[in-house]
Amino acid sequence: MIRLGLRLTVSGGREAITRLIIVATAVGIGVGLLLTAVAAVNAVNAQNASYAWLDTTPATRSAAPARDPLWGNITTDRFGGQTIYRADVAATGPASVVPPGIPRDPGPGQYYASPALSALLRSIPADQLADRYPGHETGTIGNAGLPSPASLIIIIGRSPAEMASMPGAAKVTSLNTTPPSSCGGNGCVNRAEDVNAQGVDLILSVVAVALLLPVLIFIATATRLSAARREQRFAAMRLTGATPRQISLIAAVESVTAATTGVAAGFGLFFLLRIPLAAIPFTGVPFFPAQLSLSLPDTLAVAIGVPVAAAAVARLALHRVNISPLGVARRVTPPPPRAWRVLPLLAGLAELGFFAWHGRPDSTTGQISAFLPGFALIMIGLVTAGPWLTMTGARMMARRASRPGALIAARRLADDPRAGFRAVSGLVLALFITTVAVALIATQNAKRTGPVDGTSASNILVDQFTFGPAIGHVPAGSFSVSRHVLGDVPAPPAAVLTRLGRIGGVQAIIEFHADPGLSMSDPQLGLPPGFPAAAVSCTQLASVPALGHCAAGAAAAEVPAFITPAHFAGRSLARVTWPAVSIPPQRLQSLPLYSLNVDTSGSAQAVEQARTVLENAYPAGVGSPETLGEDTAAQNIISSAYQQLAEVVILASLAVAGCTLAASVTAGLADRKRPFSLLRLTGARLRMLGRVVALESAAPLLTVAVVAIGTGFGAAAMFSPVQMQHSLVAPPGSYYVITAAGIVVALGVILATFPLLQRITGAETARNE
Q1: In degrees, to the nearest 5, what angle opens at C-alpha 155 toward C-alphas 150 and 157?
Q2: Residue 404 contacts residue 688 (beta carbons within 8 Å)
Q3: Which domain holds residue 300?
Q4: Is this structure's pTM higher than 0.85?
């Protein structure tokens, strides 16, 4: 039987070869997309894990045998809106731990730089970047120490004596290996560039389901190509004496042969596209091609699972053949779908509704267990309920049909709604995914931190010397973030002010001085009682109108100690009159600094030169000096990464849905060429047959699409308040454009099959059948 199945597969003439090629191609595309989705999830996790060593603190180091400790201090720098990770290290002996990607710890006067940073150092004037880092480059950091090819990382060698006097430096005997997404409360810093620890697993889980289900439907659709034609052939075999087991084996051999060929093509497609796909920064930065990898279980699951699934689909498709071969030959109407098919959909909505009402679990694992089954049930429920909804819509259309084409299409859909819905099932899922993704993107955008109002305010370069409220606290002695203790940063010396003043584009300098006795409250500005306040010179404040002004006759004013987008997003300070404080100018200059604020023209040269001067003058500030505009971008980097990821999911799901629709409509025409040919022989016009084909696909699409879109909005409305802590925001106009365009393209795919309809419905087709 196996030999007979292989012979029928490859020696059945042009039709058999064409069917094999079409099925293998369709399965190959589906498998390629499936492997890409799995590899993308692996890549995000691998990239996130590569940040682990940059989050090393005394609290996160793992247990290790006694060895020479490594002095370390990891801080962040900025250049052109990009983050630079800077690790100052000093080995205390030959057994000191070595950061990944370099052969040994650098000595004093040496540093290792990532390839991207090394190229940047060579291409940018030294006073804008290279002057911040002492020593000379002794090598580049390998991929093992880099999250991305675009990562900017530098490891600077120091002496133990230098590190001992560096604020924030600490001794460690091992580097952190816990990815930021798994840190929890283990002391990780979780920088803005890392994928957020509380959301990565949940987001990736939902993304995986959103990508995998449409692809699996596409593969199942491909393996059913020419199913009706094969059913007829197998029914004839049954009538000649073949047993059900023999028929099942022949069908499995045909399906497995095509699926195996397609799996091989899919692996080839994946490896062909892996390098260009790695360059897509859907987490905000590109990937190494090696990060887009497949584990052995992933490879075996696809390589074995797809052919096995194809055999199972073939077996299910032959259910009517095994029961009643005469019935298949005479086209017995299958039983209609029942209303119970909507239960999975309702169960998914009820599951999300339960957590929307009672609140989400505290742990990320609990959130995955709470929300992932709900979304998966809804997507499965849409596919399960689709045939029943299609049948219901077809019966309504039949009652209102006034033309033969509409009546024939309605009756055919009501006769076999499963086949009618199968063609558009991928697109229905894509519409649900698009609705949820766009609605949540709009909600996330509503939460994004806005800039301090005014272009000139965004260009102010701030060097912060202490943490403020809502910025957070990092334990003293941290290996990851340096900070000054309030009160130990004096006013800038004249030499620093002179160097800043010589930079073209630096327009003014404002010193925010700390006085423990100052605090303020301003409900109109959103400042709670006891908010830390700073004292500024009114002369300096007058040179930067974007930050407000003093009362008439005042020499010094009380201003918020932290003017950042986190506190003043979207607020204009230019019209604010700050209260006066009675601090003589001589005492004001003797007070320590909260921050040093440099008003620039916004040019890259001015910002970077001023940043270099500030970092050399104050090497242990809170992070790197950054403009208020850069601060806004950093606050929103995770939102931007999630938005890019959502856009990838939308585009991928729509592409898969288009392939599923094209395969289903083409297969449907091939399976129905005999009845269509007979209709043409009885006088039916080709235009009327085209209208039947269009309505058979458009009717279930439009019927179930309304349910899918409404369900998408309902699921997003329940998810966003409990998980995103923000009520659902209506999507922008682009959503409606994308949805309409997707439906129009789907209808275009259907119309594109009309030339094929003319070729396969000639008189010779009815005669040959």
Answers
A1: 160
A2: yes
A3: 1-51+202-332
A4: no
